[in-house]
Amino acid sequence: MPASYAYLGPEGTFTEVALRTLPESATRELVPVVSVAAALDAVRNGEAEAAFVPIENSVEGGITATLDELVAGAPLMIYREVLLSITFALLVRPGTKLSDIKTVTAHPAAQPQVRNWMKANLPTEVVWESAASNADGARLVQEGRYDAAFAGEFAAARYGLEALETGIHDAENAQTRFVLVGRPARPAAPTGADKTSVVIWQRDDHPGALRDLLGEFAVRGVNLMLLQSRPTGQGIGNYCFAVDAEGHITDRRVAEALMGLRRICLEVRYLGSYPRADATVQDVPTPRQGTSDEEFVAAADWVARCQDGRF
Amino acid sequence: MPASYAYLGPEGTFTEVALRTLPESATRELVPVVSVAAALDAVRNGEAEAAFVPIENSVEGGITATLDELVAGAPLMIYREVLLSITFALLVRPGTKLSDIKTVTAHPAAQPQVRNWMKANLPTEVVWESAASNADGARLVQEGRYDAAFAGEFAAARYGLEALETGIHDAENAQTRFVLVGRPARPAAPTGADKTSVVIWQRDDHPGALRDLLGEFAVRGVNLMLLQSRPTGQGIGNYCFAVDAEGHITDRRVAEALMGLRRICLEVRYLGSYPRADATVQDVPTPRQGTSDEEFVAAADWVARCQDGRF
Amino acid sequence: MPASYAYLGPEGTFTEVALRTLPESATRELVPVVSVAAALDAVRNGEAEAAFVPIENSVEGGITATLDELVAGAPLMIYREVLLSITFALLVRPGTKLSDIKTVTAHPAAQPQVRNWMKANLPTEVVWESAASNADGARLVQEGRYDAAFAGEFAAARYGLEALETGIHDAENAQTRFVLVGRPARPAAPTGADKTSVVIWQRDDHPGALRDLLGEFAVRGVNLMLLQSRPTGQGIGNYCFAVDAEGHITDRRVAEALMGLRRICLEVRYLGSYPRADATVQDVPTPRQGTSDEEFVAAADWVARCQDGRF
Amino acid sequence: MPASYAYLGPEGTFTEVALRTLPESATRELVPVVSVAAALDAVRNGEAEAAFVPIENSVEGGITATLDELVAGAPLMIYREVLLSITFALLVRPGTKLSDIKTVTAHPAAQPQVRNWMKANLPTEVVWESAASNADGARLVQEGRYDAAFAGEFAAARYGLEALETGIHDAENAQTRFVLVGRPARPAAPTGADKTSVVIWQRDDHPGALRDLLGEFAVRGVNLMLLQSRPTGQGIGNYCFAVDAEGHITDRRVAEALMGLRRICLEVRYLGSYPRADATVQDVPTPRQGTSDEEFVAAADWVARCQDGRF
């Protein structure tokens, strides 16, 4: 039995398309599951080697279901990330015309990406209803329950539909970021264009508390790529923060910043270090003066010599 | 015609219950609308005096639909906030027993608050389907489409249902925060226990950029209550931040911090200053030494005297 | 009786030379006095309009006698500063040769500036004795008490000496900074290349206390030119700080920084804003984005509009 | 030949008294030399095992001659510090009365400590002249050159003088801090109440540059005890900073702060870690939460486990 990847199904969604861009997916059994929680549970209980789920998109922001699943429960780790540009097609049963459309469906996450297009192109009295997924919406159109569905163009063939329109996207640069999540393991070797994800819980809450946490990164020249607050479940106003930082945990500046956080935070959960999907090593700026590995090593060596009286 | 408040409907939801806790709601026409966007649009186009919508809950965090509507479009302003403790009742048609339940529905936001209870108390094969609102879920149970709905206990009478169970809440202290939103106006007078909401867009993105923004609050002793990133729509990784700070815009420390943000940020959108629903003036700590209005005034007076040579 | 300036005498020192570079000195009676304390006391008790004293030199650093007199006692204010390049001449009675020199004198402050030259050029057995001033050293050579004196070349004529060597300076760029000090008055109008001097006393002493003080300047983009600790007289380890900051107290960023200091410090003593002697407006970099007067005014205006509900 | 300590002479000064409080001085030859520079040169060229010199006093602040000698030249290291309370006696030849005194002498450093006493107790026409040291002043009184000298009471016997008055001190808590300086060696083991001295040179000079340097200490909870600017000799306004920090270089928080400085500064010179003379381990507050050695070790261990995939 091949190792398997669980992914947020059903088949025919953007998630599957993104997953198939990973070379390693070709050698795994790809298993669609009904929810992000189910995908991550499959990893936690050993049914799947890894799970592939959306974690952030450029219209809706952090995918809270995924963040919350990573924040709580047994530790998991992000192995890889994938970026996919998202544009929608309007899928209908063959023969349907724009003016025929009275009901339309898609996953709720699609709505902000197609809202303006709908206003401009569909009859004003059209009714939107949410579907469990974009693929499911397509299926419901096939079954006749709705007149049209917004979904990836690739879903048309699977459900015997045709695309009345393609390339629909209210926002330019609409992208979704997916992650391949597994059990804790040694992180992939650094590539020079890496990202490190952690979740941090503040110890207390005074003026400057959050600034001081971010100072642990700033003082070591580590840039932040994402700061997403998530409720801790302890009542309104109690938040933890999911943070993506530039660099790999084996970069000295990142390692020392994480140590700093670990010391001053109530808790830090490491979520992995992995190659950036949005950049290669050529795109990554040189670390700020004083924060390269070489400079860290030289400074540590100097302190050691001082401690030994050899200076 | 009375002035009207548009609220996220339908009738019989937690939103309506929260709205009715505001004394001024008694003298307004309360108009349920289908979405947060519709509620805020009603204010923007003059159909409603104000809109009442959820903005944050202790399980799901910031309500992104509301935040995104406040962030974009014509400026709006938060006049008031209301906190409501959220517990669910399981509503069924009279005579239904727990063991009869094969399908259950509610708004998706209810799911994380009832998930554990469902696992422990409902048959394992029970199917969850999302409803447009909790009240709508109750209506669908009344119509026979589902066996049970999670909703506020107050919805039972309206839909001829009975509550098999009440007080369902996976998380202790589950609360939702609602805001009354209107067109820009002079903020309510400070009460001593106030909150100020803004949205900020960073000018650039270097190590420490976000720390420096937060430093504008910290250096003036202003505590933060919420920091919620929202995508700007300019692509993955481009975020603005919705910030709730302790204090009122007429507090000198808050006013100066906002000025500081305005100067260093690409943009700052003021969303209002209003009484805190979670605290009264007795609960609010004395400002940190050096940050009271009296100290600001004395320091400004001293600088003026120095500028005049009278020191 | 003309208004008078008291200056650190005697006549014929670098101080007098520096003072005469000020155009206003031509219309005042210039009165040499025996010490910095005497000069400043003459101002405090109304005998002199202003005092002219050294405050900093590039070899010895801050002139502690001057700093301490400004820090304590009735408030005084710096009106102007003058920079003078310092090189020494070796003055001898006519006929004396280098190899004749067995004793040499000067003010102790001259020693670090001529030490290396002495080693290289004078007999090794030469004896150094301190004089009350460089001019007084010259006088003592004239009287035959010492063989040679280090002093300004301009002192030779006054004391009937000749310069065996001129341009003596161990350190390149040796300069002394002098200040014209008077009673509190409206500071000179800003020139665009100004400096503001204050003395600050910390309220307490915790990790980060001094960093936070400096943060009041940094967060508003105000650069520091001098930070000189001076003991408070309350025992070892108790210091206040004399600070020179770029800019004028009527610059908004400087005024707000001073207000911030005033609020968080135990005490702040304003010592004046005055034109920089080391730079003209062409040399001064544009304020960091967000810290110009225009941006301060625009931000204050924005906050005022928010407070009024006009945004 | 016994190992020797060079100290700032002559015999009979406060320096010798302070030196003799060190137990190890009993087993060394104590050699008075004419200047701080001579004392430190004796160490550098191997003539003395160590030098004992004043470095800071509560009236005058940092002793610039000592600081400048430590800042430049071959590296040296502070082994120990001694605090001595300083009060003066007025020494006269037997038979002299207060009203007889027309001339008085002492080292210039004594002046600010006796000035007010002089005004209150000596004839107004009394003339002050500086001596090379307080002991030398006493010698000159013995020789009849001056009528009285301010010096330590212990100097009376040595020079056949008597103390007309003892316990003279304008400032309460007048103390001088002395250091025993040697060649680089392994620092003394930490005692729990230690101090670490360094000199730092900034790389550049932008708003916030000095704040950022101090941030390296602050972010790791290291308190500063002294920050003394000293000119670099590169012209007015060019300073390095002598810093005394609480803690020992083998304390993790101190070591990491030094590493941070080393990376961002142009240069850092380590001057040693040694027991504090002003405090014992009982006086030292517990390190701020998150900055103890145990927390550093635990955090480093956690990062190592994350790097290994064992979390």
Provide an overview of this structure.
The structure is a homotetramer of 311-residue chains. Chain A is of the alpha/beta class. Chain A folds into three domains: 1-86 and 170-185, Periplasmic binding protein-like II (D-Maltodextrin-Binding Protein, domain 2), CATH 3.40.190.10; 88-168, Periplasmic binding protein-like II (D-Maltodextrin-Binding Protein, domain 2, 3-Layer(aba) Sandwich), CATH 3.40.190.10; 186-311, 2-Layer Sandwich (Alpha-Beta Plaits). The first copy, chain A, is 28% helix and 30% strand. Chain A contains nine helices and 15 strands. In chain A, the strands form three sheets. In chain A, strands 1, 2, 3, 4, 5 and 11 form a six-stranded mixed β-sheet that branches. Chain A has a five-stranded mixed β-sheet with strand order 8-7-9-6-10. In chain A, strand 1 (4-8), helix 1 and strand 2 form a beta-alpha-beta unit. The radius of gyration of chain A is 23 Å and the shape is elongated. Chain A starts with a strand and ends with a helix. The B-C interface holds B 75, 77, 184-187, 203, 212, 215-216, 219-220, 249-250, 255-256, 258-260, 262-264, 268, 270, 289-291, 295-296, 298-300, 302-303, 306-311 and C 75, 77, 184-187, 203, 212, 215-216, 219-220, 249-250, 255-256, 258-260, 262-264, 268, 270, 289-291, 295-296, 298-300, 302-303, 306-311.
